[in-house]
Amino acid sequence: MRNINVRVTVTLLVVGVVSGLLSGLFGIGGGTVIVPALVLVGLTQRQAAATSLAAIVPTSISGVVSYATAGDVDWIAALLLACGMVAGSQIGSWLLSRLPEVFLRWFYAAFLVFVIVSQLVFTPQRDSAIHLHVVTGILLVALGVVIGILSGLLGIGGGAVAVPSLSLLFGASDLIARGTSLLAMFPSAIAGTAANWRRGLVYLKHGLIIGVCAAVTAPLGTMLAGMITPRMGANLFVAYLAVLFVRSVWTALKVTPGTNISKVHDR
């Protein structure tokens, strides 16, 4: 495992605490904050995405336990999602090792725009649930494949897509969508991490520091999620993603040939 200095360690600890809170609050793995933070401490976008996925493993375990305790997990829907996500994460991991850095950064920015729009146009109900039948099951697996590809490619757990999709397309309440999302991302995060490890992309010590800290604070985020309204939760998520979007565009411009920012960055 790579050695890290004190400044980087402190940064990783803070990122772990924050990503854990966000994981519990929004039902995400925390990759949307972990990836830019790892890039900030010196990892490439490719390494950051792979390491973030490793950190999501302990984070998702802690978060799902908190939601399951309150009965806010649809176990069958999570299993169907997970089947698709495991397959999709292998495709995403394969793409991660082959796509150029500049593409990955701009794709990440575009992904954030999609999630922001989805959160603004739809407000889930607190008391609704997923009604499973054959067609729903097939669609859940298909959604899982798409999420898995994004997970392996961007280093996210997939919750930023799974949570709004489960509410918008399948009728889940905001809390059930978050709990189910966290459970579904666990096996795909393991599968994607194993694939990234074989390709030498994972900074395991970085991932462990973030993941352990996040696992400790995720239950607090879960408690906060139950205290606020669905609309307020969506608005907070949008505000958080908007900040990440500005940051991701800035970092993408720095590695895009021909831009003024990239020229300054190269000097």
Automatic annotation (TrEMBL):
GO cellular component, one term: plasma membrane
Ion transport is among the record's keywords: no
Location (main, coarse): membrane
TM helices/strands, residue ranges: 12-43, 49-68, 75-96, 102-122, 134-163, 175-195, 207-228, 234-253
Location(s) in or outside the cell: Cell membrane; Membrane
Membrane topology term: Multi-pass membrane protein
Record's keyword terms, sorted: Cell membrane, Membrane, Transmembrane, Transmembrane helix
Lineage: superkingdom: Bacteria
InterPro entries referenced in this protein's UniProt entry, alphabetically: TM_pro_TauE-like, TSUP/Inactive_protease-like
Assigned protein family: Belongs to the 4-toluene sulfonate uptake permease (TSUP) (TC 2.A.102) family.
PANTHER family: MEMBRANE TRANSPORTER PROTEIN MJ0441-RELATED (PTHR43701), MEMBRANE TRANSPORTER PROTEIN YJNA-RELATED (PTHR43701:SF2)
Protein name, per record: Probable membrane transporter protein
